[in-house]
């Protein structure tokens, strides 16, 4: 087998799903949407119901609560589905691979605890890096890929709205790096990171649910159709 045959085989695997596969991918989109919408509330209410733990400053901070397994399990599930997802075009596939891979990284490399060791500091830095790339990747998918076709439809407008909400949340959270240490502590105590992360992930979840056909419109149809 020469290089040309290998390249052709790889390209074929990245091509659009056809026939019955389309139904499977609509289901995968709905699974991603449900998991995304459920995540913030699952960790929040799970920690409170199980151990009466207060709301944490960020979703990632629930790693150090009784809701750790919910957090890690849900993030890994989202990441695995995104990695396995084969979108209608090569760029969809590559974007979902990127988002899924870094989503799994967010789950496996926890955020920095209150009094970190040097190793925990390093792991926390990796966590923040993975989280930033994950949020940028899923925002790009919604804004740049979901909106390609169907201009003027309610679904397209909703994708734009969800994408802009996600982008705004990512930008606002990114400004923390410019704050002084005292202001960073005040920001952390305010709980705004949790609120913004929740808003971004809810918008992400809604976009994927609609992409999968929730709310009417049927989602993406056969391989020749792009929503």
From TrEMBL:
Domain of life: Bacteria
Stretches that traverse the bilayer: 31-50, 70-87, 94-113, 125-146, 158-179
The UniProt record lists the keyword Membrane: yes
Record carries keyword Membrane: yes
Protein keywords: Membrane, Transmembrane, Transmembrane helix
Name of protein: DUF998 domain-containing protein
Organism of provenance: Candidatus Korobacter versatilis
């Amino acid at each position: 087998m020469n290089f040309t045959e290998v390249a052709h085989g790889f390209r074929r695997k990245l091509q659009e799903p056809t026939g019955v596969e389309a139904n499977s991918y609509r289901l995968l989109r709905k699974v991603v949407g449900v998991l995304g919408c459920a995540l913030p509330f699952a960790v929040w209410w799970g920690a409170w119901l199980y151990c009466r733990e207060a709301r944490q400053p960020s979703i990632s901070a629930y790693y150090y609560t009784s809701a750790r397994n919910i957090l890690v399990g849900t993030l890994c599930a989202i990441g695995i589905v995104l990695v396995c997802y084969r979108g209608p075009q090569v760029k969809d596939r590559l974007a979902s691979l990127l988002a899924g891979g870094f989503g799994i990284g967010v789950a496996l490399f926890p955020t920095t605890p209150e009094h970190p060791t040097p190793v925990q500091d390093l792991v926390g830095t990796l966590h923040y890096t993975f989280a930033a790339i994950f949020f940028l990747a899923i925002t790009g998918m919604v804004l740049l890929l979901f909106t390609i076709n169907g201009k003027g439809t309610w679904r397209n407008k909703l994708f734009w709205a969800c994408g802009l909400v996600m982008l705004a949340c990512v930008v606002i959270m990114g400004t923390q790096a410019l704050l002084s240490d005292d202001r960073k502590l005040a920001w952390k105590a305010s709980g705004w990171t949790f609120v913004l992360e929740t808003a971004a992930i809810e918008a992400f979840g809604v976009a994927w649910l609609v992409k999968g056909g929730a709310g009417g419109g049927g989602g993406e149809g056969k391989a020749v159709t792009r929503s």
